[in-house]
Specification:
The complex is a heterodimer of chains A (337) and B (452). Helices cover 75% and strands 1% of the residues of chain A. Chain A has 12 helices and 2 strands. The relative contact order of chain A is 0.15. Chain B has 452 residues and is mainly alpha-helical. In chain B, 72% of the residues lie in helices and 6% in strands. Chain B has 14 helices and 6 strands. In chain B, the strands form 3 sheets. Chain B has a two-stranded antiparallel ribbon with strand order 1-2. Chain B has a two-stranded antiparallel ribbon with strand order 3-4. In chain B, β3 and β4 form a beta hairpin. Chain B is globular, with a radius of gyration of 23 Å. The two termini of chain B are 44 Å apart. The chains are: A mainly alpha (337), B mainly alpha (452). Chains A and B meet through α2, α3, α4, α5 and α12 of A and α2, α3, β2 and α14 of B.
């Protein structure tokens, strides 16, 4: 059996899960200052993701750990190559968590305002950086013969990668607005629905530009030719469907549609890369592939058994927790200070 | 400074900082679950209030443990890419399993517990805090499996300059882990217990909510006495194991330069590493041999002989760890551990004589002693990690060969300063919040459920 393929798929699934779930809580964090009229609104907005955001972040930790174990060279090259962006990501995630956890602990205005800044920037920056990082991977990076990134930071921040960052922010924000529309009531609900209506077209333009330029800029479409295949087509259909559902005010379906667009879009990236994991722009001989970056077969086998046993359990209780906390949040439910 | 030195400082700062919160999480999660169990069993509002009170402090600490933990996981790849390439096959497995088995459980059920008051059944609610406590200890076991492999590598073959797995069960049940995990986890329980005792003492001292905090102080005392004794016995096992598998570390811990048979125990020494001697020293005959071997005759090898052996095995080089730090780190850890046992036993006798709630002096000391486990914990890890130097993986990979070759010293310095500033900021905020909430005392029984 080809364990490298299995683990490539599993890591893709972990990143897909991460973007799907943390995607909406990034979106909620980005929207929080704009859709809230007062402190109660802000607290509701944060509480919609209160029981989930931490567990959503564990998808990233698991993806990182799985990558370390299954493809040590991929992990080492990626993480040391994106040294400064990942540092910024960590800072943002730390401040974001602090914002969430400590915001309600003091009633003072300045305290909460500071927390709001942490939450907003701590959601915007990671969403953007993930877009930049993933775009860089599919663009290819200067990777030398010893599997190390030999470029500089300026290269990572190239215009197309920045567009990728913007595309991620746009998609996650829309996804977050639709999530909010499912968990809020009254005026707040009206406002987030309006945001979703207004931002679909600008978001669509950014994503379209990103996808079209991708033909020239990335390795993804080399194998696909001019006509997009099934996965890219489904991605486009899902995203367009979200427009229809938003107009019809079927927000549950619209949320499902943006979720599908995130899942499928990430799947396009990973399937387009395979069997590469980090293409080198210096020489094809230096490409990191699932075969030259992987661990031994025994490690992959052990990990497969573990994943098979425990991933279903995790999905089970995480799904259950979403069910437990599925009701809408009202202004009355927020305790007075 | 070279980038290797900065990378080491950064890792040291991050782990030490992370490890301020981890032992508290280990201990407080179990203690909160115990309080919650008392509430579940008795339905008493006092236990409910105590559960909410210590639960709130637990959450603040837990949050900081989580955010600093992510930094650690990323750090291996970011600053130690060569190390990651070398060990990923083996070291990555427990890390991935830790996330899958423990972190998901912890993060999901802590939210269920926090937001679940009056929303899910009482039994399920109690179960959720126990799941958090179990997940905390599980996570400790997996990370210690990973660390144990760095101390005593097992179940591997070297292939094309990488360590590859050839026996998973050997890695999983590494003897090093079996002696290290109980010691580390139980020390965490002691940390949580002394924290709870100290906070309770603060209220008892002020005569505030005496009924409530008298209860939590007693639970904490029992916890610390039992935990303290077990920490010392498991620590003894670990030190003996170290003598067998990392003799250089044991020799450094004991400041033993020359092989002795039987070996004496150094009580106090001023160490001069450059000249390979101790300028002033008090030694107790026989004691080290008794401690290391349980008899009166066996030899304990000294650093000079071990250095020679290493040179024969690995070629010329300096194979001594920084001795004074390891020597004194060990003494600080053991000394504090002894203090905790005596202190908590004395507390039990006060309880026995009915004077615990009123003995102002004891309560005052309890407020100071609660800070000492943090020093003991850090000292213990410093002994374990510094004592392994110059190796990052004992006998297989030198620390200097593990660092990322493509990250510049400037970048390392920038991020080290950045992280350190943020850690300082977090410590200030968390310290302030813990102080504030701890001082306020237990909330009313029907205080609003958790909300952000």
């Amino acid at each position: 059996m080809d364990f490298q393929l299995i683990w490539f798929i599993l890591i893709a699934i972990l990143f897909i899960g991460y973007f799907l779930l943390e995607g909406f809580d990034f979106g909620v964090g980005i929207l929080m200052p704009f859709v809230s009229k007062d402190d109660v609104d802000r607290r509701i907005t944060i509480n919609t993701i209160g029981p989930f955001w931490d567990a959503n972040e564990v998808w990233l930790i698991t993806a990182g750990g799985a990558m370390f174990a299954a493809f040590p060279h991929w992990y080492a090259t990626l993480f040391s190559g994106f040294y400064i962006p990942l540092f910024l990501l960590l800072v943002a995630l730390i401040l974001r968590a602090v914002g969430f956890e400590f915001r309600s602990k003091m009633p003072d205005k300045w305290w909460r305002k500071t927390a709001d800044h942490f939450i907003f920037w701590g959601s915007l920056l990671p969403a953007f950086l993930w877009g930049v990082a993933l775009t860089n991977v599919v663009q290819g990076l200067p990777i030398g013969p010893d599997k190390n990134f030999v470029g500089h930071l300026g290269l990572v921040l190239n215009p197309y990668a920045l567009l990728g960052g913007l595309a991620a922010v746009a998609l996650f924000t829309l996804h977050g607005a639709l999530f909010l529309s499912l968990r809020t009531t009254g005026d707040l609900k009206e406002r987030v629905e309006k945001v979703a209506r207004l931002m679909w077209i600008p978001a669509g333009l950014i994503l379209a530009a990103f996808a079209i330029l991708g033909y020239w800029q990335t390795v993804l479409f080399e194998g696909l030719g001019l006509i997009p295949g099934t996965l890219p087509t489904l991605t486009i259909i899902s995203f367009v469907a979200s427009y229809v559902f938003i107009q019809l005010r079927w927000h549950g379906y619209a949320f499902g549609a943006t979720g599908a667009a995130i899942v499928l879009g990430t799947a396009v990236v990973f399937s387009g890369l395979f069997p590469l994991v980090m293409p080198s722009t210096i020489d094809a001989a230096y490409h990191l592939t699932v075969y030259n970056a992987s661990s031994s077969d025994l490690t992959l086998k052990v990990m497969s058994v573990v994943a098979l046993l425990f991933l279903p359990i995790v999905l089970g209780y995480q799904g259950w927790s979403y069910y437990v906390f599925s009701q809408r949040l009202t202004r009355e439910a927020i305790p007075r200070d | 400074m070279e980038s290797i030195d900065i990378a080491r400082w950064q890792f040291g700062i991050t782990t030490t900082y992370h490890y301020l919160f981890v032992p508290l999480t280990l201990g407080l999660s179990v203690l909160t679950a115990i309080l919650h169990s008392f509430y579940y069993k008795t339905g008493s509002s006092e236990y409910k209030r105590l559960t909410k009170f210590f639960g709130k402090l637990f959450i603040i600490i837990f949050a900081l443990g989580v955010v600093t933990g992510i930094v650690l996981e990323f750090q291996f790849g970011m600053a130690w890419s060569e190390y990651s390439r070398f060990v990923g096959d083996i070291f990555g497995i427990p890390l991935a399993i830790e996330a899958l088995l423990a972190f998901f459980l912890e993060s999901t059920f802590i939210a269920v517990w926090l937001f679940g008051w009056d929303r899910i059944s009482k039994g399920l609610h109690l179960l959720s805090i126990w799941l958090v406590a179990i997940a905390s200890s599980l996570s400790a076991i997996w990370i210690i499996i990973a660390n144990s492999w760095m101390q005593v590598p097992v179940g591997y073959v070297l292939n094309e300059g990488r360590a590859e797995l050839n026996d998973f069960v050997a890695v999983l049940l590494n003897e090093q882990m079996l002696v290290m995990a109980p010691h580390t986890i139980i020390a965490g329980f002691v940390t949580g217990g002394l924290f709870m005792l100290g906070i309770s003492a603060w209220h008892l001292y002020r005569g505030h909510q005496v009924e409530l905090f008298g209860k939590s102080a007693r639970i904490a005392l029992v916890f610390v006495v039992v935990g303290g004794i077990l920490t010392s016995t498991t620590g003894h096992d670990q030190a003996q194991h170290t003598g067998e598998h990392q003799p250089m570390k044991l020799a450094a811990m004991e400041g033993l330069w020359d092989t002795e048979e039987p070996a004496s125990f150094s009580l106090f020494a001023i160490i001069d590493q450059e000249n390979r001697t101790a300028t002033r020293e008090i030694r107790l005959p026989y004691l080290l041999t008794i401690l290391a071997h349980n008899d009166l005759t066996s030899p304990v090898r000294g650093m000079n002989e071990l250095q020679q052996l290493k040179e024969e095995q690995f070629g010329p080089g300096d194979y001594l760890p920084p001795i004074a730090i390891v020597y004194w780190g060990f003494r600080i850890m053991v000394g504090l551990g002894m203090l905790f046992i005596i202190f908590s036993m004395y507390g039990i006798t006060l309880w026995w004589r009915g004077k615990l709630d009123t003995s102002k002096r004891y309560l005052k000391y309890a407020m100071i002693v609660m800070f000492l486990p943090f020093i003991a914990n850090s000292a213990g890890w410093i002994v374990a990690e510094m004592g392994r130097q110059p190796w990052i993986v004992y006998g297989l990979l030198l620390t200097a060969d593990g660092v990322s070759p493509n990250v510049s010293g400037g970048e390392m310095l920038l991020t080290t300063i950045g992280f350190t500033l943020i850690y300082g900021f977090l410590a200030a905020v968390a310290g302030f919040l813990i102080y504030r909430f701890a001082k306020k005392g237990a909330p009313e029984e029907d205080a609003p459920a958790h909300a952000y």
